[in-house]
Each structure stands twice: as C-alpha cells, then as structure tokens.
Amino acid sequence: MKKAAIIGAGISGLSTAHLLKDRYDCTIFEKEETPGGLIRCRRVNGSLFHICGGHIFNSKRQDVLDWFWSIFNREEEFQKADRNSVVFMADGKHIPYPIENHIYLFDNETQKLFIQDLLSIAKNEGYEPHNFEEFLRNRFGETLYNIYFKPYNEKVWRRNLKSVPLSWLEGKLPMPTVEEMIFNNINQVKEKNFVHATFWYEKENGSQHIADKLSQGLNIKYNSNIESIERRGNKWIINEEDFDTVVFCGNIKQLPTLLKGVEITEYKEKIDALEYHGTTAVFCQIEKNNYSWIYLPDNKYESHRIICTGNFAASNNAPDTMTATVEFTDEISKDDIMEQLGRIPMNPKYIDHQYNKYTYPIQDADTRNMIASLKSELAKEDFFFTGRFADWEYYNMDVAIGAAMDLCKTL
Ligand SMILES: Cc1cc2nc3c(=O)[nH]c(=O)nc-3n(C[C@H](O)[C@H](O)[C@H](O)COP(=O)(O)OP(=O)(O)OC[C@H]3O[C@@H](n4cnc5c(N)ncnc54)[C@H](O)[C@@H]3O)c2cc1C
Fold first, then answer.
1. Statement: residue 25 has pLDDT above 80
2. Among 47, 77, 107, 109, which lies 20 to 30 A Cα-Cα from 330?
3. What's the gap in Å between 130 CA and the centre of ligand 1?
4. Are residues 18 and 139 in the same domain?
5. What domain range includes position 9?
6. Over residues 172-200, mean pLDDT
7. What is the distance between the alpha carbons of residues 316 and 46, in angstroms, rounded to a whole number?
8. At what angle do helices 178-186 and 108-123 cross, to 10 degrees?
9. Is the pTM of the predicted complex or chain greater than 0.85?
10. Ligand 1 environment, Cβ below 6 A
C-alpha cells in the first residue's frame, strides 16, 4: 500500500484520512495535542467553549451529507435546530434575521424609504455589481445598507467594502429578489433557503465530538509541528519517514519555507501577500435568551456578533448557567475585552477567551488562479493540498469535507 502523509487534523485532514484509508497507509501530523483545528472546544467551569465561532453543521451537498451521516448517527448523536437569529439595532430594536424580511417591524419612515429603495432596485434590473459594497447597495437598497449591512460588515471585515471582491463570497451571499422581499414582508415569511436556516448540532461536546469521532482509528501524530517536507527522488521525507504522497491541510503561507527540493519561489511573493483576519472569541456567561446568533451592527462596540452556543445543546452549559461567545475581529487585549463587555447587550460576563490568528482568508481577484496553478505544479510531484487555509477559501466544515472528497477522488 502506498503511504500518504496528511498535515493537519482539522476537519479537512481528518476527512481526507477517512477517504483515503482503504487505499493508502495514512499518517496525520498535527501540531496541537488534540484534533479539530478551528472546530476544537474545551470545557471551562463546566461549560463548553468553542475556541472559534460556534460550529453547527449542514450542507447543500448530498454526497457530503451521505458521507457524514455514514459516520455519525444523526438521531443519537445530533439534534436538529432552527436558526433563530436577531439583529440588535443601534436604536434598541430587535429585528429577526434576515433583516430584509422584517421591514414591517421598522417605523413608518424606514418602511417608506425601503419601498423607494425597492423601486429603484427594480429599475436597475440586470446591473452587475463589481464588489461587495455595490452588491449590498444594489440588492438591499441604501436604507438597509446604511443601518445594517455597512456597519455590520465593516466590523467583520475591517475594510472598505468596495475592496471585497464578490468571488470571495460566492455561494455565501443571500440573493433575495425584490419580489421575494415584498412577498416575505407581506406574508411575514421567515427565510428558509440559506444553508444554515436549520442545522444539526452535537448532543454532547459540540464540534469537538466531530473531531474526536473522526480521529478514532486513524494514525495521528500529535504535537508534531511539521517544519520541513522534503522531496528526495520520488519520495517525500517528513520527520525522517518517507511517503509517496502528501496532502497538506495546513496554511498555504507555510509552504514556501516548508517545502524543500521543489521550486515554488515564483509563488512566494503572492502567497506572502495573501490577507486574512483573525478572531478573538470571548467566552461569557450571558442572560438567558432563545437566540442562536445575535448580530451587532451598532458602532458603540467592536464586537459584531454573539453566538449563543449555550442554546445549541443543554450539555453546553454548567447547571444554572447560560453561555455564549462574543466575537471580535482580530486580536483584542484582555483589558479592551473587559471594557467592551460592559457595553455589549445581554450583560456578558467574562469566562475565558482565545485569539485565533487565521480565521478568515481574504482573496483578491488573482488568488484562485494563483492557487490553481500552484496546485497543478505540485500535483506533478504527488503533493496535494486542501482546506480553508491551504486553498485560501472561505469554506464551512461541509464545504471543506466536499473539497477533500473532490480531491480524494483524483488520488
Ligand atoms: C468564526 C468562525 C465560525 C465558523 N462557523 C462555522 C459553522 O458554524 N459551521 C461550519 O460548517 N463551518 C464554520 N466555520 C468554518 C470551519 O471552521 C472551517 O471550514 C473548518 O474548520 C476548516 O477546517 P480545516 O481542516 O480546513 O482547517 P483548520 O481547522 O484550520 O485545521 C488545520 C489543522 O492543521 C494543523 N496544522 C497546520 N499547520 C501544521 C503543521 N505545519 N504541522 C502540523 N499541523 C499543522 C492545525 O493545527 C489545525 O489542526 C467557521 C469558521 C470561523 C472562522
């Protein structure tokens, strides 16, 4: 049997190992001491802290769902939930998500402005936006752009929304038509079309359960931070062991220094220039509520959302506690966290926090071509890569699994 080295025991590496294990003798190298990457969780004071976000599962891809549910017992290990999200507006109103379906809850003045916006959007039919700002203005109108989409997205992306290319958000953007928005408001319809409108969540241990179960039976070398992958003849050498094939599921930014014996210098500058954001996840005790996510466009505080992980499963909370993660883009100090929490709604009380340096890859117009070209160069040497930061794509877990499936079919 051929030997494959897989770098990284996040969802991408773990899925890859499962998909290859009947055909390859697989070894996973993971730098941390537990599996999961971004989906890792840990218990703090008896409650479950998702070190990044609050991972929920669903997919539009039937092959991903079939594969996932062939490993997990849906009824025994998971529970299904409807997304119940809300936007806490700067003026104190709580508007259910998605905001464009709930214009009837705003004051008359805002409703009239929105109707005017819809009329001009309808006149503009066929207009092709060039960037995220144009997309939002053109799809939802000036009024919603100014009171919600602009302030919220500027907090998340920390940049002028004109500089966000649309390709980067492909498949992630809501695309309601004018007719749909009018219909949904008249009939007070809740949005059911987006991928996470309903979702699956683990009864115990949150997304750590996915990582723990997938890691069972695999050969994973933990605490193995791989700093060199060397091409010698037709083998790859990692920690003095040779492999026929490598699937790299770490961060593409590491490749120029990691790879020895193959020439990728011409990609180095572009790889170094790839932009990204990190996230500071602040684990808190908060007031009891029945929301899944609370969006915070208000500029009074830097946080853009609260993920009410305590509502995802009863086992996520210690007795008589309700927990959630308050999320900030990039790194923020403990002092700033404490100062900010005092202003954030729902009375969050600090329990713990974690900064993850790489959480949101940012593409430019050339990123996909550059990565496709590097992939095809390295594939000639039996070196492959897949994953959120290997592909520099805004993957959700299911899309990362799908990408691993697509790759493994070719190996
Ligand atoms: C805030 C936030 C919220 C999210 N919420 C959801 C959600 O609700 N639902 C959903 O489906 N998706 C969600 N996602 C997306 C999801 O987190 C990712 O799609 C998924 O975790 C990516 O997995 P990965 O294996 O590609 O990368 P990672 O999870 O980053 O895994 C990479 C692994 O490789 C290891 N590694 C890296 N370099 C090396 C090296 N040199 N040597 C050894 N090991 C190495 C790392 O330690 C890590 O374990 C969210 C993402 C974020 C940022």
1. yes
2. 47
3. 29
4. no
5. 2-37+207-275+362-408
6. 80
7. 8
8. 150
9. yes
10. 7-13, 29-32, 37-39, 52-53, 55-57, 224-226, 249-251, 254, 279, 359, 387-389, 395-398, 400
